[in-house]
Amino acid sequence: MSRNKVSPLMLSACFRRLEAHINLIEGEVSMEDAGIGWIAAIIIGGIAGWLAEMFMKSNMGVIMNIILGIVGAIVANFILSLFGVVLGGWLGYLIAGFIGACILIALARMVRRTA
Q: Using one digit for the tens of pLDDT, what is the confidence trace for 39-50?
């Protein structure tokens, strides 16, 4: 099975864009406000992505799990903030990452089926 390779430059650019999106979303708890640094975000995002991968019976790589967890946390925090729910701290980031990663995996499956 072949896996897509992600260069460090692409990963760095992805994290810069994620940081910009976090700063743009109002009412959302950013990683800095939650007391989570970038290294912790990568670790927690990887765990959240892996849990979502197991739950959704998907097969991604380690890098994709990290990206899914981090982007998933942003997506879930945005959606939850629309309902007035704000998750903070490490556990909140993990829960939001898991929920968001599951949403992203489900969306990717829907797009693949229609294509």
A: 888 888 899 999
